[in-house]
């Protein structure tokens, strides 16, 4: 009888411990905060199949933008329960730098904001003093007026300038700026409304072991980071599932609350805050 009671106690204890975290890495929900479905991907891959790939990756959500916006709208129609749309200021691929000085890109954004609903403006590319150009200032104004956050592919200097234009701005820093962990830490200490996605930051985890430098930043700002694939070319769509599996492996080595926050809770909270603030 004592053995039976002891065995039952062990089972209940293990069950209680497991309740606080996924039993396996594959069970961890994932929100991909960096998905593009631009016109070249849309031409090669039907929106329904793209949505199926996101579902096969086990995603709980996806932050989607595209060049042009038609890809985003098509993927949203195919998976409205999964896709959170963001408006990229590019009418086609290849406008990464030309958009900064072309007033047509701003007219394009303004027109679409009047037709569709979004959670963000971006991803857009801007570095250094270019963040003071009129087109960038206008995007910041539009994000403020429409209660959206910004997705900036930027260096630390440009991020600082975005917040100077609007100290109340909310900024998702694509790729964590490709900056060093200490630079990211310093920026997040200065700005409480700065988040970062970790797309293409493969050095975060080598052999599924998280870098000590990055772990220190994650631990200081557990509510600021999220994962992303960055399907910037059609070929990257073939990697959505494998990238999700890799992300789950290293996330599952973190303390359960931290792993779940980076995996999906932070991104869900950001987009939910936008939707709830309207």
From TrEMBL:
<keyword id="KW-0732">Signal</keyword>
<protein>
    <submittedName>
        <fullName>Amidohydrolase 2</fullName>
    </submittedName>
</protein>
<feature type="signal peptide">
    <location>
        <begin position="1"/>
        <end position="18"/>
    </location>
</feature>
<dbReference type="GO" id="GO:0016787">
    <property type="term" value="F:hydrolase activity"/>
</dbReference>
<keyword id="KW-0378">Hydrolase</keyword>
<dbReference type="InterPro" id="IPR032466">
    <property type="entry name" value="Metal_Hydrolase"/>
</dbReference>
């Amino acid at each position: 009888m004592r053995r039976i009671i002891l065995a039952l106690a062990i089972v209940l204890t293990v069950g209680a411990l497991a309740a606080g975290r996924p039993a396996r890495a594959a069970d961890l929900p994932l929100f991909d905060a960096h998905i593009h479905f631009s016109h070249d991907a849309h031409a090669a891959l039907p929106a329904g199949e793209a949505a199926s790939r996101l579902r096969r990756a086990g995603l709980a959500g996806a932050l989607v933008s595209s060049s042009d916006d038609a890809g985003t709208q098509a993927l949203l129609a195919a998976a409205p329960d999964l896709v959170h749309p963001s408006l990229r200021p590019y009418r086609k691929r290849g406008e990464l730098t030309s958009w900064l000085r072309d007033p047509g890109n701003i007219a394009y954004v303004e027109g679409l904001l009047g037709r569709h609903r979004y959670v963000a403006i971006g991803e857009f590319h801007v570095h250094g003093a270019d963040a003071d150009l009129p087109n960038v200032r206008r995007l910041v104004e539009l994000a403020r007026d429409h209660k959206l956050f910004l997705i900036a592919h930027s260096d630390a200097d440009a991020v600082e300038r975005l917040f100077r234009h609007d100290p109340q701005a909310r900024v998702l820093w694509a790729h964590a700026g490709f900056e060093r962990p200490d630079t990211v830490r310093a920026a997040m200490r200065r700005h409480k409304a700065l988040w970062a996605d970790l797309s293409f930051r493969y050095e975060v985890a080598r052999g599924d072991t998280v870098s000590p430098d990055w772990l220190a930043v994650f631990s200081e700002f557990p509510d600021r980071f999220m994962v992303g694939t960055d399907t910037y070319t059609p070929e990257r769509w073939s990697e959505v599932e494998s990238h999700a599996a890799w992300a789950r492996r290293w996330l599952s080595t973190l303390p359960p609350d931290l792993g779940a926050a980076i995996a999906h809770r932070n991104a869900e909270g950001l987009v939910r805050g936008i939707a709830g603030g309207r």
